[in-house]
Give the backbone structure.
Amino acid sequence: QTLFQGYKQIIVEGISDRYYLIAIQKLLEKINRNNLLKDTIIVPAGGTNKISLMASIFIAQDTTPVILMDGDKIGLSKKAQLIQSLYTDNGDKIITLDDFIEIKNPEMEDIIEKNILVPLFAETFNLDISENDFDEKTFVNAVKELNNGDHTLPKNWKPILAKAFMEYIESSNTEDLTKIDVDHIEKLVRKINENL
């Protein structure tokens, strides 16, 4: 009962989403931009279908966590379901990425610029690919197309890539990181903070 006492909570869909949010925190901290509020924990639900269960555990402890989900059909459907059940008076606490990324059905990988994530993806999985392979698609859909073609990726490629991104942020110098466009990331963080 007291495990998360004194902390603000953000529920995300999976472990890779947690890694990306941690990396985003480190990125914003390194370049002195607005960051997530202190004393905030990021809790992966283990999939969209488990978000309601995770949220109900917190709500039973008299705290209503922020929920961050992909802006795809599954995320938007889960948001509508939660607003009609557990979050009837707290709909603003459910945040989907489609409000921050100008691509249809965005997932967490899409919040990172492709000119950073694609080379990191290629290096991590030893692939001969370019940003052109990812044009006008969500990152995940482009990966699915690659995986159906000549490339075979492990089933857990998402957390592997998210960890690689986290390590990239940790090892990069501040000057290189200031070249990353973080306006939409900062907008997302601001929205999360407003609702914690």
The mean pLDDT is 93. DSSP finds eight helices and four strands in the chain.
